[in-house]
């Protein structure tokens, strides 16, 4: 549903400006609801701030649509946005599965969807004809290979244990990492430790007994944190690396000291270094009384990217198709990274950055390729 | 079987222990009792007779608080007790052996008996002994699960269990149902014995001939109303009763 | 308490007129009116929390916020007390609830309905009505927005199909099935397999319509495979086994990546096509009504077939098994056969729904088959009124529609909270469901009188035998 | 299969099994008395965990050890147990009693239970946030013991110890006290129990309270072992219910055995086949056992039989 | 439409030579408890055999063993059909036993309460029909024909047991005595050779008992069905049974004609009691006069 606070932030300029809506589709209930909520909030914040600035030639609203992270609920969630003639572009869908289910509908409606987090590589395959989908994030291939590179080149490990969480995200990431690790001549052992495992003690024992000298965890922080705790208890001290699903302050909050020394990758630049991101974090916390979470900032960026393109229309009426075409060609420098798409809607560029948890803080180490080359 | 001294003479003058006045009970829209009056005096054995569905069980269940009458009253020792919930009625000294025995199948015989004394904080061994004395069969089987007892044994247990609550008034619902002839005879003599020990008994029976022989007075119910009432002998002699409830050629 | 003391027994429980009076009349704090008041106030507080702020990082935030938000809290509590007062004074003032105008309105209304029902049952009224209903339903998608079109197909119609199937298992045969969505999954994966979209390729590729019979067959077999070893189980034992079966199927879909592509799912299941030689038709992503009509036809056929079953030898045998399995067997009913039949029919219906879903969404992944959905379909069926096809259809439509319409009124994240509350309230006030079947209603009435169980699912394990 | 690993996996299996057992008892007790799957029991468990979370978030213990830790853990049990008991009590009054009074069909109870479960889950999500939250450390000393070369953490000892104490206590309560006898009697024949002077409503309430108490404590332990979320009840709930059935639903000792078996099976299957096959193995074992023993390992006990 | 068209009639003459059911050396145990021990029993074609004995003697368990509800550990149970074939019943499924020709009633009435009286009977009658779910779903003519046939048969049977006017009442709303009759009608609908009645008179009053005795004789004489009867009411037993077998603690302690059995001291001691025995002898003497 629409956010109640929207009216509060309505422009002072008055009545005759047109109103446009930016949609958001993601899982607000169901499994991993928190991720969807993080993203929705990012979008809401962007729109509130844009309206508040008062320099827009139009008024903006936001419309969220919950797909419960389920593919079969995705089409109707998408349709809700498609039906609303005011919706000119959509941030989302958040998850790859729902993205696959709904993209044909968006394509037919020529409604731009900029996903901040659907990372499954196959989404941008031209054969899909997902012509309205623009991926605002490097896909799993890039992160997975980043991890592999670091282990192979920098740490020079022999055997790596690769663990996925049986989520779509986790297995995607793991598959790529596996291929790249093997390419680098590293022996790979794989395990799956699904989300919501009731007790990670057995899993930690498995890691301990595996004989690997490095571990990759492809999953989210909700599961990574208790796992990290048990790993620490088990006395596992090999290098551990995880992706953007874990790269979140919550990880440290949940795992406590057990998070120390974990490497975390992310296609996103350090969210804490720059002034702008600090302001974002503060504003977010102020509005939603919780710190910005995974993908909040990316969603914020994508919403702003849309708004920026909308501004280029000036007084002209904004149509979906026109906006879609502009977005396809656009380039935008956000808080987290620069956004640009190739002809398939795939994210272009995308360095992967490495972080490490040290004494309860996520510290920025640098561009993973550069680090590995060094 | 010792002939217990007939209490007829003084019972008729004893003060009433239980009085039902114009009792009306409904199951939803169905009226099961259409205003019955029954009196049980201290020390008596009173029998309720009647065909299936006449309302005998309903009467007992209303007395013990499982059903609430829509009209009329129940007086016990002179005080109204209708509307008192079942688990409090027991503590007034009204014990019941329900239709179909209803022993707790997964409890031992002893535990079943102790359940009968649930209202007491402590149960004296003598109470158990008294029941075991009445029913030696139960003593043999005291640690057997009640569900595995035979029908007759279960019936004994149900009566024994009711006795454990030291009732002043004992309600027995068809204690002879489904029992072998030998056991039926036993049960009746035990009822007599219990009564001789000072417990007033309200008995519901299909087995009219035997019940009437044993009781001081009796009521015949028919579709929720009292049809005839009188002393045991009177009813045994009543042609209507003889025809409907004793069948032809019933021994007397 | 299996120990026994030898001390003298308690003094005989004594009772006096006053103590008895106390027992006969509840003290004020136990009175219905007072309890209702407490309940209303608590509900007021609860409602304040329900409509309060979403907590985030700080676990106390929402609690502090709603319980110190006096105007808001006060309003809700006042409303609650107001409602209480209305109810209480209403019945006090009138003394006799029968005098209440509300009561009268309800009574009149039911009387009217009772007058109308037999008329509705008459042939010359019934058929025109049914035809009118079908026409309205068929035209429905052309009147509503694309969103509701999607909802009608993906969320409502597919689940209505499922509910029709589950009704056979639970409503008619009385087998408590908590894993029904497993067959839905099998249907959907069959569609993906036979259209060549799974990592493993099929011997021949089929179009979705041709997959339907194959999926029906597959589910039939799966239903029998599940049914056969579990037939000795009753009630809740069966429930947990079916639930386990669901989990196993779900986890196989998730874990057996080589066959199912795991959690990533498979994409591109084609839309159905119809080729009659002289005329061919292809369903598309954008023609939403077409799917609605297709499901209407499928549901129509199923209803046509199943309605016959209910009042036939088969339906009666199911009822017999449901009520008393030993007695049924003793009268020659082959309980195994009929139970398997129910499982198989239910499973195949579910399979059809799976194929439809797969080709509509064109994407199949385990996420559509979570345990929660099994629980939900069961809730739909019971909510609608087990055993009555019309009831379960209505119940499903309502409960599947509800979360969608709630989107416009409450925080999307909170929808399940309201759904849960509605389920509880509904079961309190209408435990038999929206439109219970006649037989089920009778069973319920019998249960109310203490003669047997309303759903005939409490037969002691192993059965009564005498 | 080397023997060291065997112990390595057995021990977490036992501690997890102990938790399942404690939750399973809640199901079994309620089932025994009301013949009802208390689907919302998993939310009682969740509420217990949140209660502990709230208290410890307020207290913010810093580096507790020694007696302090003991006190905190005891506090955790008290708070979570009370919260669980309270929730279960309210649940019975709101979601079940009205149906009981109306003599509703049993499946209506199931749906009411499911509704209550949804409601509690999501109101907790709203009230406490939807992100997982950690219970602060209650003992810095995570000293690990070794048994047969396998590690045993303090928390595991607490889990198993608490479970054993609760199980023994409950077993005594049900089999040795007057209240327990009342519970058993109501389970077997409620109406007749009433005729014996048992207040049926009170017994039912108490049963819920006891089950809730155990469930709440289990929630606390579970939260301590990992973290607290509004959806945390669902899977442990399902597994514990399976455990109750596996042992013979209605049978308290059966619930204990069932819980243990499932905990160990899960752990061993994590070892042998991988963590993703945990539940598959657990349910496969459940189905197999029920095929050969349709009334569970120990059969029904509290409940009625023919 | 007369009964004969639907209810098959068998030759009513009591052919005492051929046993319909032969129970040989049957032993049934529950754990340590021996419920039936080496039981021998023969039911001859056309006969009414009463099985009596104290509570818990194993009478109902014997019925359960005959009908496949229980599977005795030892012994054999054979059914000799009217058409000359013989079947081993031990270990057969309940519904198979029923198909072979054994129908029963239950000690505690077990009707399908939410169905009408007629439907109760139809269910049983339909187990003899071959129509499958597919033809029913499609409404094929054979399914309709079958439906009509079972309807007719059920009507006739209801008429036969004297419930012709209660066809559309709910089974649960019938009076106790009528429910007993309905159970019998339902059992008859499966067209049995042998009818097993478990305490059909329990909880009925003397008048109803007389009517019941009449019905049992009717079933035996008119339909030619052999009857195995468990009953505690000695008057009923004596008035209908041709022979009596007495069980005690799972063993057969006596077997013979009614007169023989009531004089048997073991039976008197274990079951009848001296008083009852004397009473019965009296009654019999009166009747003979
Ligand atoms: N729970 C119930 N619900 C509805 N009607 C009932 C219920 N119990 C009994 N009745 C009806 O109330 C009437 C009286 O029944 P009741 O059980 O008191 O008869 P009874 O004299 O004890 O008969 P029986 O000899 O069969 O035990 C009957 O018509 C019966 O059908
Ligand atoms: N399923 C069972 N499990 C254990 N014991 C059983 C079982 N069924 C029957 N029994 C026992 O077998 C014995 C015989 O029981 P049965 O019901 O056959 O007696 P009966 O002769 O029919 O008695 P009644 O005349 O009281 O009906 C009893 O002691 C009974 O407890
Ligand atoms: C992290 C998530 C919100 C989504 C995930 N990357 C996916 O592709 O599904
Ligand atoms: Mg009665
Ligand atoms: Mg018997």
Give a description of the structure.
The complex is a heteropentamer of chains A (374), B (252), C (466), D (306) and E (289). Chain A is of the alpha/beta class. Chain A is 42% helix and 19% strand. Chain A has helices at residues 33-53, 71-83, 96-109, 140-155, 168-183, 201-210, 221-233, 249-255, 275-288, 296-311, 320-329, 368-373, and strands at residues 19-26, 59-66, 87-91, 112-115, 133-135, 159-164, 187-192, 214-218, 240-242, 263-266, 331-333, 338-340, 353-358, 361-367. Chain A has a 7-stranded mixed sheet. Chain A has a 5-stranded parallel sheet with strand order 2-1-3-4-5, sandwiched between helices. In chain A, α3 (96-109) links the parallel β3 (87-91) and β4 (112-115). The longest helix of chain A has 21 residues, at 33-53. Chain B is of the alpha/beta class. Chain B has a single domain (11-245), classed as P-loop containing nucleotide triphosphate hydrolases (Rossmann fold, 3-Layer(aba) Sandwich). Helix content of chain B is 36%, strand content 26%. In chain B, a hairpin with a 2-residue loop joins β9 (217-222) and β10. Chain B starts with 7 loop residues before the first helix and ends in a 6-residue tail after the last helix. Chain C is mostly helical and 466 residues long. Chain C is built from 19 helices and 4 strands. Chain C has helices at residues 17-24, 32-50, 61-68, 70-94, 101-121, 123-143, 146-172, 181-194, 208-230, 235-255, 257-260, 288-310, 313-323, 325-330, 335-361, 371-384, 389-406, 415-429, 438-448, and strands at residues 266-267, 273-275, 280-282, 363-364. In chain C, α8 (181-194) runs antiparallel to α9 (208-230), α9 runs antiparallel to α15 (335-361) and α16 packs across α17 (389-406). The longest helix of chain C is centred in the middle third of the chain and has 27 residues, at 146-172. Classes of the chains: A alpha/beta (374), B alpha/beta (252), C mainly alpha (466), D mainly alpha (306), E alpha/beta (289). The interface between B and E is medium-sized, with 28 and 34 residues.
Summarize it.
The complex is a heteropentamer of chains A (374), B (252), C (466), D (306) and E (289). With 374 residues, chain A is an alpha/beta fold. Helices cover 42% and strands 19% of the residues of chain A.
Keywords:
heteropentamer; A: 374 residues; alpha/beta; 7-stranded mixed β-sheet; 5-stranded parallel β-sheet; 12 helices; disordered N terminus; E: 289 residues; Rossmann fold; 2 domains; 6-stranded mixed β-sheet; 4-stranded antiparallel β-sheet; 11 helices; 10 strands; 24% strand; binds adenosine-5'-triphosphate; binds leucine; binds magnesium ion
């Amino acid at each position: 549903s629409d956010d109640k606070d929207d009216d509060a932030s309505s422009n002072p300029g008055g009545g005759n400006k047109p109103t446009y809506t930016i949609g958001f589709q993601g899982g607000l209930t169901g499994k991993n609801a928190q991720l969807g909520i993080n993203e929705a909030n990012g979008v809401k914040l962007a729109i509130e701030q844009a309206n508040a600035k008062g320099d827009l030639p139009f008024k903006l609203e936001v419309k969220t649509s919950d797909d419960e992270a389920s593919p079969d609920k995705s089409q109707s969630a998408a349709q809700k946005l498609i039906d609303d003639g005011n919706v000119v572009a959509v941030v989302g869908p958040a998850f790859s599965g729902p993205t696959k289910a709904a993209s044909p509908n968006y394509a037919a409606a020529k409604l731009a969807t900029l996903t901040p987090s659907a990372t499954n590589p196959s989404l941008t395959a031209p054969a899909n004809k997902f012509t309205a989908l623009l991926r605002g994030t490097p896909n799993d291939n890039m992160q997975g290979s980043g991890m592999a590179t670091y282990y192979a080149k920098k740490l020079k490990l022999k055997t790596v244990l690769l663990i996925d969480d049986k989520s779509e995200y986790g297995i995607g990431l793991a598959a790529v990492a596996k291929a790249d690790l093997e390419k680098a001549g590293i022996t790979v052992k794989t395990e799956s430790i699904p989300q919501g495992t009731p007790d990670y003690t057995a899993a930690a024992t498995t890691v301990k007994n595996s004989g690997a000298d490095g571990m990759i965890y492809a999953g989210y922080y909700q599961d990574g944190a208790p796992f990290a705790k048990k790993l620490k208890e088990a006395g596992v001290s090999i290098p551990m690396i995880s992706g953007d699903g874990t790269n979140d302050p919550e990880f440290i909050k949940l795992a406590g000291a057990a998070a120390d020394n974990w490497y975390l990758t992310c296609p996103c630049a350090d969210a804490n270094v720059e002034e702008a991101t600090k302001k974002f974090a503060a504003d977010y916390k102020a509005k939603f009384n919780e710190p910005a979470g995974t993908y909040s900032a990316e969603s914020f960026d994508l919403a702003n990217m849309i708004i920026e393109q909308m501004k280029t229309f000036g007084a002209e009426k904004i149509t979906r198709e026109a906006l879609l075409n502009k977005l396809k060609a656009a380039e935008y420098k956000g808080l987290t990274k620069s956004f640009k798409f190739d002809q398939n809607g795939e994210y272009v560029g995308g360095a992967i950055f490495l972080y490490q948890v040290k004494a309860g803080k996520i510290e920025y180490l640098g561009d993973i390729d550069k680090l590995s080359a060094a | 079987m010792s002939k217990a001294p007939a209490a007829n003479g003084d019972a008729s003058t004893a003060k009433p222990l239980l009085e039902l006045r114009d009792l009306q009970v409904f199951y939803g829209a169905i009226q099961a009792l259409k205003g019955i009056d029954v009196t049980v005096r201290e020390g008596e054995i009173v029998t309720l007779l009647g065909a299936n569905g006449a309302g005998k069980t309903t009467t007992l269940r209303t007395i013990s608080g499982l059903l609430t009458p829509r009209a009329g009253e129940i007086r016990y020792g002179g005080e109204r007790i209708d509307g008192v919930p079942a688990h409090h009625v027991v503590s007034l000294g009204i014990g019941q052996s329900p239709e179909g025995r209803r022993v707790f199948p997964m409890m031992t015989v002893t535990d079943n008996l102790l359940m009968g004394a649930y209202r007491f904080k402590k149960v004296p061994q003598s109470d158990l002994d008294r029941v075991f004395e009445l029913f030696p069969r139960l003593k043999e089987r005291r640690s057997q699960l009640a569900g595995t007892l035979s029908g007759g044994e279960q019936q004994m247990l149900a009566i024994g269990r009711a006795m454990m609550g030291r009732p002043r008034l004992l309600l027995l619902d068809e204690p002879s149902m489904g029992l072998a002839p030998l056991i039926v005879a036993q049960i009746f003599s035990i009822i007599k014995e219990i009564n001789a020990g000072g417990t007033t008994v309200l008995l519901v029976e299909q087995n009219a001939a035997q019940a009437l022989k044993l009781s001081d007075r009796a009521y015949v119910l028919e579709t929720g109303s009292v049809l005839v009432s009188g002393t045991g002998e009177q009813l045994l002699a009543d042609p209507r009763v003889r025809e409907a409830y004793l069948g032809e050629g019933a021994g007397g | 308490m299996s120990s026994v003391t030898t001390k003298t027994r308690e003094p005989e429980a004594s009772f006096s007129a006053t103590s008895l009076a106390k027992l006969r009349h509840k003290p004020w704090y136990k009175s219905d009116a007072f309890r209702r008041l407490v309940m209303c106030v608590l509900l007021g507080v609860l409602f304040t929390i329900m409509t309060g702020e979403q907590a985030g990082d700080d676990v106390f935030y929402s609690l502090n916020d709603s319980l110190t938000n006096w105007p808001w809290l006060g309003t809700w509590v006042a409303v609650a007390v107001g409602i209480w007062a209305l109810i209480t004074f209403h019945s006090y003032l009138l003394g006799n609830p029968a005098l209440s105008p509300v009561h009268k309105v309800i009574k009149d209304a039911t009387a009217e309905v009772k007058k109308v029902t037999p008329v509705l049952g008459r042939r010359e009224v019934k058929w025109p009505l049914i035809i009118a209903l079908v026409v309205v339903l068929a035209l429905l998608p052309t009147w509503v927005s694309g969103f509701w079109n999607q909802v009608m197909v993906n969320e409502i119609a597919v689940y209505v199909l499922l509910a029709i199937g589950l009704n056979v298992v639970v409503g008619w045969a009385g087998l408590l099935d908590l894993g029904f969505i497993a067959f839905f999954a099998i249907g959907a994966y069959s569609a993906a397999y036979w259209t060549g979209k799974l990592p493993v390729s099929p011997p021949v590729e089929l179009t979705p319509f041709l997959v339907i019979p194959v999926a029906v067959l597959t589910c039939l077999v799966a239903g029998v495979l599940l049914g056969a070893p579990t037939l000795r189980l009753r009630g809740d034992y069966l429930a947990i086994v079916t639930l386990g079966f669901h989990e196993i199927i779900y986890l196989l879909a998730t874990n057996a990546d080589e066959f199912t592509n795991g959690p990533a799912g498979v994409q591109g299941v084609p839309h159905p096509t119809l080729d009659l030689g002289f005329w061919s038709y292809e369903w598309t992503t954008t023609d939403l009504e077409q799917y609605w009509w297709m499901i209407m036809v499928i549901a129509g056929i199923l209803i046509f077939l199943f309605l016959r079953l209910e009042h036939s030898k088969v339906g009666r045998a199911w009822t017999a098994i449901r009520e008393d399995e030993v007695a049924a067997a003793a009268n020659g009913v082959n309980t195994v056969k009929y139970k398997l039949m129910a499982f198989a029919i239910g499973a195949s219906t579910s399979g059809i729904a799976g194929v439809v879903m797969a080709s509509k969404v064109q994407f199949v992944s385990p996420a559509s088959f979570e345990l929660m959905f099994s629980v939900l379909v069961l809730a739909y069926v019971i909510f609608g009124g087990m055993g009555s096809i019309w009831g379960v259809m209505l119940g499903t439509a309502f409960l599947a529609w509800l979360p969608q319409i709630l989107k416009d009124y409450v925080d999307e994240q909170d929808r399940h909270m309201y759904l849960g509350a509605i389920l509880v309230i509904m079961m309190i006030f209408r435990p038999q469901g929206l439109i219970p079947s006649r037989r089920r209603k009778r069973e319920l009435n019998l249960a109310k009188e203490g003669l047997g169980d309303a759903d005939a699912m409490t037969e002691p394990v192993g059965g009564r035998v005498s | 299969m080397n023997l060291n690993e065997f112990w390595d996996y057995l021990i977490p299996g036992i501690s997890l099994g102990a938790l399942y057992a404690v939750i399973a008892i809640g199901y079994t007790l309620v089932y025994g008395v009301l013949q009802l799957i208390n689907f919302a029991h998993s939310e009682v468990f969740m509420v217990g965990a949140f209660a502990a979370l709230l208290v410890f978030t307020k207290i913010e213990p810093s580096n507790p050890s020694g007696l302090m830790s003991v006190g905190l853990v005891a506090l955790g049990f008290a708070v979570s147990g009370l919260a669980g008991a309270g929730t279960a009590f309210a649940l019975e009054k709101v979601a079940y009693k009205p149906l009981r009074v109306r003599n509703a069909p049993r499946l209506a109870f199931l749906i009411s239970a499911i509704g209550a479960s949804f409601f509690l889950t999501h109101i907790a999500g709203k009230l406490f946030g939807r992100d997982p939250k950690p219970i602060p450390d209650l003992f810095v000393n995570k000293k690990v013991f070794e048994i047969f070369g396998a590690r045993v953490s303090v928390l595991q000892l607490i889990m198993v110890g608490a479970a054993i104490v609760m199980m023994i206590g409950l077993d005594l309560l049900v089999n040795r006290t007057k209240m327990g006898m009342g519970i058993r009697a109501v389970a077997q024949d409620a109406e007749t129990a009433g005729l014996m002077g048992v207040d049926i409503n009170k017994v039912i309430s108490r049963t819920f309270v006891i089950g809730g108490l155990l469930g709440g404590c289990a929630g606390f332990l579970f939260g301590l072992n990992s973290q607290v979320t509004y959806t945390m009840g669902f899977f442990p709930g399902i597994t514990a219910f399976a455990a109750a059935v596996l042992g013979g639903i209605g049978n308290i000792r059966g619930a204990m055995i069932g819980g243990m078996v499932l905990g160990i099976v899960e752990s061993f299957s994590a070892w042998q086949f991988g963590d993703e096959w945990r539940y598959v193995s657990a349910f496969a074992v459940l189905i197999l056992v029920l095929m050969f023993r349709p009334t569970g390992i120990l059969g029904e006990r509290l409940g009625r039989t023919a | 439409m007369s009964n004969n068209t639907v209810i098959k009639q068998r030759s009513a003459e009591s052919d005492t030579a051929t046993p319909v059911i032969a129970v040989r050396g049957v032993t049934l145990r529950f754990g340590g408890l021996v419920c039936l021990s080496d039981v021998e029993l023969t039911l001859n074609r056309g006969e009414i055999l009463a099985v009596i004995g104290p509570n818990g003697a194993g009478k109902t368990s014997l019925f359960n063993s005959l009908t496949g509800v229980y599977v005795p550990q030892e012994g054999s149970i054979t059914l000799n059909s009217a058409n000359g074939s013989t079947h081993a019943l031990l270990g057969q499924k309940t519904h198979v036993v029923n198909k072979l020709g054994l129908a029963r009633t239950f000690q505690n009435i077990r009707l399908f309460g939410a169905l009408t009286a007629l439907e109760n009977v139809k269910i049983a009658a339909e187990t003899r029909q071959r129509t499958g779910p597919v033809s029913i779903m499609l409404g094929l003519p054979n399914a309709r024909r079958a439906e009509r046939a079972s309807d007719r048969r059920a009507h006739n049977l209801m008429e036969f047991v004297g419930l012709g006017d209660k066809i559309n009442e709910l089974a649960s709303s019938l009076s106790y005595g009528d429910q007993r009759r309905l159970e019998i009608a339902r059992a008859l609908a499966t067209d049995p050779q042998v009818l097993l009645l478990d305490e059909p008179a329990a909880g009925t009053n003397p008048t109803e008992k007389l009517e019941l005795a009449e019905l049992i004789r009717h079933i035996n004489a008119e339909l030619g069905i052999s009857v195995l009867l468990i009953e505690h009411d000695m008057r009923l037993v004596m008035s209908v049974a041709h022979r009596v077998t007495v069980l005690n603690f799972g063993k057969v302690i006596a077997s013979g004609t009614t007169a023989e059995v009531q004089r048997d001291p073991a039976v008197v001691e274990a079951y009848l009691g001296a008083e009852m025995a004397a009473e019965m002898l009296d009654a019999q003497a009166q009747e003979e006069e």
